[in-house]
Amino acid sequence: MHREALRRHGDDKRLDASELQLATASEPYRLDLAEQLAEMPYLKVAKVGRSNNRWSHTLLFLGHDGVWSKPYHAGEKGALTAERAKIANGFDLSAGSHWGKTKAQIRQILLPRANQLLQLASVQRLLAEAMARGERVLVSNGIVFWYEPEGGVGWQVKATSSTRDSEATTIWKEGTILSTNHGRLVVLPYIKEGGEQVRGHTKNGPNDGRALPRHRDHFVEIPFSLYDGDLMIGLFGELPYE
Hints:
Elements: H1 2-8, H2 30-39, E1 45-51, E2 54-61, E3 72-73, H3 76-88, H4 99-116, H5 121-132, E4 137-140, E5 143-148, E6 154-161, E7 170-171, E8 174-179, E9 185-187, E10 190-191, E11 197-198, E12 200-203, E13 220-226
């Protein structure tokens, strides 16, 4: 998401440090702020630090008049808001809103872009070759190309996810995914710390609503292969394997 935020604003005008409008009390942070805006010109909240060669935790906010605010002390919550602004502000969203709902909004923004991949001839060839090998799920770099046989849906794009149990465990390089619903996210098979192998499954994100269930007769168990990034395709159209 951060990478896409940067891409979307790659052509934005960058202001020189001397052009920034700051409250008088924020002058010590001018260069620090300018460095961040050179990379992320869309920021509306920035955590700045260095002042007279000392590090502190300070927040600056961009006002509607284009002037950056006086400095505010950044507690843990404020510092987290500034980190989230690096993504949220890139999609014209507030960094202070519920983070789960914000990420759900961003996923909805990105979904049409992701589905465009299925229209690329190179991707269609890649998926046709996978079908010929009997593969129905290809996973790489957080993207899942998922073949849905029911109802003639065909190939679609999903995203990988995790559970609390799977976050600190080992992902299988190969395995099966049992889909009992039409969830947008795919939890890959993983191995618990005790060695137990857990089958993959599908689900929705916490702010996506309940995943539409499948009829028991239409449960789908699909083998998958985890590909290295240079064999697959990035979310935003890179074709490193060509």
